[in-house]
Amino acid sequence: MNPATTNTAMQEFWQNLRAAPRRIYETAFRSGKPVTDRTRSSFVFGNLFLHLHSVRTHLWSLRWSTTMGLGIASTAAFLITLVTGILLMFYYKPYPDVAYDSIKDIHFVVPTGRFMRNIHRWAANVMVVTVILHMARAFYTAAYRRPREFNWLIGLGLLITTLGLSFTGYLLPWDQLAYWAITIGANIAQSPREVTDAVGITEYFDPGGLQRLLLLGSDEVGSESLIRFYLLHVMILPLVLAALMGVHFWRIRKDGGLAKPEDADARLSGRERDTYPVFTEQPAKTYQLAAIVRGKTEVVNRGPENTVPSMPHLFYAELAVLMLTMLVCLALALVSDAPLKDIANPNIPENPAKAPWYFLGLQELVSFSAFMGGIGIPTIVIIGLGLIPYLDRERTGTGVWFGGPGGWKLVRQAVAYGLGACLAVEALVIRFGWLREWFPNVPQLIVTLINPATLITLLYGAYSVWLVKRYQSARAGALGLFTCFLCGFLVLTIIGTWFRGPNWVFYWSPSDWPRH
Amino acid sequence: MKKNKYLLLASSLGVFVLLAVAAVQENFLKDWRKIQATAKTEEGPVAVQLRQVINRGLNLSDRCTSCHVSMGPGEQNAAGPGVLTAHKPVVHDPAEYGCTVCHGGQGHATEKDDAHGDVHFWPEPMIPVRLSYAGCGTCHIALNAPGRDGFRRARGAYERLDCAACHSMDGRGGLLRPDGGGMEGGDLSRTGISGYDREWYGKHLRQSQQAARGPWKTSFAPITQADLELLATFLDTRVGAPKLVEAKSVFLSSGCLGCHKTGAIGGDDGPELSLAGLKDPALMDFTHVPGKESVENWFTEHFRSPSGTVTGSLMPALHVPPEEMELLNFYLFSLRRRDVPVSFAPKDRVRALQFGEREFATDGATIYGAFCSGCHGADGKGFRSPGMPAFPSISNPDLLELVSDEFLIETIRKGRPGRRMPGWDRDGGLRQPEILAVVGYLRQMSGVQARPQPAPTQALPGASAAGSRIYASACAGCHGPKGEGAAGPSLNNKVFLSIATNAFLMETIGRGRRGTTMEGFRTPSPARQALSDNEIASVVSFIRSWEGSKP
Q: In terms of CA atoms, which chain B residue is nearest residue A515?
């Protein structure tokens, strides 16, 4: 080998070594800086984590009033709980009593442990709130309509999984709060017994007992329940949630992005825009894979007008929502510690023992009838929610807040009716009692069928039917019913949270509670 | 679209600021960090880090030493502000045994309020520092403790005989005196645990006789047998926790065990007290308790007015001076026995729990004080408490003269079913020798011996209208129309009827009981005529007629 070649090879080696950092960057981000339309596009579709997004985003979707960022906020809250949750798993030990000690250690000794636990707790609560609000947003903008019907169902699954995650996390600290909240939850699971007892078939057919057993893994809340809840909380439910989220996001993309009104482009026109036309003529074909896919997808025959590159416009918005959510969680975590009461003690029941706040509305109903409040009405509500997109197949008002016949005026009335009906029934029950107080010997089945919970449901249902007739529109009925149920949820949750004391008696203020 | 960009900037900056705040809180603002920064040793400042005492045997990890640095292992010489003061010398070095085992509080915590347990959700706040020695009760059981008076007499003998001239005890005494008296004798603080030479008196006496001058000559003199016994009692109570023993002696004179159990011994009427020192203030009702919401205040108020703090309480109020109130409080705080591994169980505990040794001295006075005086009074005269039936006088000479020892023994053994007097011949009750000791104490206290009664001269007539009539007019007012008792004791009690002899009943009715409202019916009073022996016999037979019927 002659020296000259060696020399060149060495030179090349040095050059390559010096170029290595630059090359690593270039090979990681192959499309180069996202400055042109082309590189901005490839920035999105060339990235595993971003390619669920469309390369261009419609301006309508970017308006804050369209989504208020609630879906991204839910996702952000989930990511925050995921990260903090994994950190907490390093110290948490899922065994009774030891669990409590490990939370104490996290609180007092683990560096930033208390902060992480607070963030985890607050992000979980934020997630429940944003998921519910996100559902309300999707409903009120009629975003569940064709072709997004099934995504609405996925969303419903996400809501239930979120509540399940929050509820299973509740037991883990193994304190009095956790223990008795889960005991309440388990008793709700057992509530079909109210009916089987009344009919006298519990001995042979006991779905309630089975549900409770499946939930707790034993007759009492104990180590079996704790390991069960832990596994659900850290593995099974997060995986389910992640899978559902994947489908949920993917479907948004497949369904043509967020729901927009038919005249979205017209509504946006005339406003000053920093977009420019991509095509000068109406395109005649799809720019997706429509060439090989049968049927018609959402973007066929539509030009990318009124769209902007997702990078950076959409990502600024999404990241802003993520950071805002983080800001809220951090701020709450700094000012308010996650609760930790005495160590769980099966001999000293909490009175009142309360479920997590988002179940207190249900607990209020359970106090009227365990079966109706715990199983009957939630089932009706979930089935009702699931059926909405299949019953309302109208087209008017899609993508517009409170769109559809009746509109905002109807919703206002429904708010008044929903709050009024629920408050009136509650006031009646709190002041005068119910069947059991009036006729002590009334059979349990009658109370199960006729109680404040079913009465409220009936009032709401009747109102909704009346709306369908009045407006000749299923959407109008749905608007009324959904609004009513939101109001009922609100009223019942507030009463359950702040106005129920020992033995679930009504008190204006906790300072009026009897002391022992 | 610029808006979102600025929003992202602003929210990111906000998150950054909050993280910075959290970081400052975590790294600079923790109290224990500030305290440790002020600590100094001869080698310079101490390393600022979380400190803890770990004792695997007792299953504790106490972080108290993060602030109380000089109480931690190997840190005894750290000096600085008050919180850094070293623990005073104790048998159980906190660097080894940890803190919470004696003091309570929350060992896991690293912040003052949490650690001291002054927070809402920590069930076991620290024992007030004044009462710290109550913490011994976590593991120890002071055995053979005498009642208050016995204890004071014994301690008095020790003081009077000036043993402290030479001997030190609990940090007092044993110093040479200016006048040349005294010398350094052994430390007697823990003679109750370590034991001591039972031949000490003979040895002391010999030394004293052989000495020509000096402390042996001037400071020691022969001691009477009675005083020797008192000294023995006193030395047996020396377990290194003088105040705890004194508190226990007060407890044992307050009659609490008549209704409450500690260590599975005592009455059943009141709640178990074995774990009273672990009471959770969050579960207590402070509505009628003045001052701070502390367990201590609650106990004090409860002693003063039992039914004021616990609705429907049947406990009579305690009328004791404030210093005894504090000692009772002290003793209750010491009732906090924890499970400890066998290797940590002290001898006294093994003797009490495994070998069934008594926690209290088994002389009549102590047992009477502990079990009987709560209802019958320290002097046996009984008392009345508002809202409760009268507690009968049992030291009444008329009673003690009429009843035999067997009557008293049977009464104590079987009690009065249906009344508050429980039977003591049962698990958790008293043993036969102890009951005999109580009867002996009653006799000794009152100075009255039983005088055998001649059998009644009259044969009892059958149940007659006359007996019933006389009972209704003369007796039913106090004893109830059916003998169920009202202001006076119940007469239809089966156990009572089975123990009481006819002679006893006849004589009691005839003579009455001085000092009570029960008058003698053989003598006339302004309100009625005297009853003849025949009439009394008919009343007795009427009372007897309940024997077969309901209790």
A: B285
Inter-chain residue contact A274 with B1, CB threshold 8 Å: yes
With a CB cutoff of 8 Å and minimum separation 6, the contacts of A465 are A477
Q: Which domain holds residue B289?
A: 244-353
Question: SS3 sequence, A32-96?
Answer: CCCCCHHHHHHHHHCCCCCCCCCCEEEHHHHCHHHHCCHHHHHHHHHHHHHHHHHHHHCCCCCCC
Chain A contact set for B26 (CB, 8 A): 111-112, 115
A327 touches chain B (CB under 8 A): yes
Answer yes or no: do B231 and B257 share one domain.
no
Boundary (domain end) residue, out of B238, B262, B291: B238
Q: What pLDDT sits at residue A132?
A: 96
> Nearest Cβ partner of A108 from B7, B109, B283?
B109
Report the chain B residue with the minimal C-alpha distance to residue A319. Answer: B8
pLDDT for res A273: 53
How many angstroms from the chain centroid is the CA of residue B225?
29
Which of A163-172, B188-197, B301-310 is modeled with the greatest confidence?
A163-172
Whole-number pLDDT of residue A135: 95
Choose the closest CB to B1 out of A111, A112, A308. Answer: A308
d(CA A318, CA A314): 6
Q: Are B105 and B213 in contact (CB under 8 A)?
A: no
Q: Indicate yes or no: CB of B26 within 8 angstroms of CB of A341.
A: no
- Residues with Cβ within 8 Å of A220's Cβ and at least 6 positions away in sequence, in order, are A346
Answer yes or no: is B96 within a domain: yes
A348: nearest CA in chain B?
B283
Kindly report the nearest CA distance between residue A479 and chain B, in angstroms: 32
Which residues in chain A have their CB less than 8 angstroms from residue B21's CB?
A: 334
Give A316's contacts in chain B (Cβ within 8 Å): 1, 4-5, 7-8
Q: Does B11 touch chain A (CB under 8 A)?
A: yes
Which residues of chain B does A342 touch, with a Cβ-Cβ cutoff of 8 Å? 121-123, 280, 282
Neighbours of A65 (CB within 10 A): 9
Q: Which two tokens stand for residue A294?
A: 């049968």
SS3 A117: helix
State whether B15 and A108 contact (CB < 8 Å). Answer: no
How far apart are the C-alpha atoms of B260 and A131, rounded to whole Å? 56
Q: Is residue B265 in some structural domain?
A: yes
Contact A109 B11 (CB under 8 A): no
**Under an 8 A CB cutoff, do A334 and B7 touch?**
no
User: What burial class does residue B191 get, using C-beta atoms within 10 Å of its C-beta: 0-12 exposed, 13-18 middle, 19+ buried?
Assistant: buried
Domain count, chain B: 5
3-class SS at B256?
Answer: helix
Out of B5, B282, B285, the one facing A316 most closely (by C-beta) is B5
Which among B94, B126, B158 is the end of a domain?
B126
Q: Check whether residue B50 and residue B119 sit in a common domain.
A: yes
Write out pLDDT tens, residues B17-41.
999 999 999 888 888 998 888 888 8
pLDDT tens readout for residues B490-501: 888 888 888 888
Identify whether B72 is part of a domain: yes
Please give the domain boundaries of chain A with CATH numbers for all domains: 72-275+301-350 (1.20.810.10), 359-516 (no CATH)
> pLDDT tens digits for A276-320?
555 545 555 555 544 455 555 555 555 556 788 888 888 999 999
Strand B261-262 and strand B172-173: the pairing is unpaired
Q: Is B122 on the interface with A (CB under 8 A)?
A: yes
| C-beta atoms of A115 and B22 within 8 A | yes
Predicted local confidence at residue B550, as pLDDT: 46
- Which three-class secondary structure state does DSSP give residue A58? strand
Query: What ipTM does this complex have?
Result: 0.86
Picking from B11, B110, B123, the nearest residue to A324 by CB comes out as B11
Assign residue B330 the CATH number of its domain. Answer: 2.60.40.420
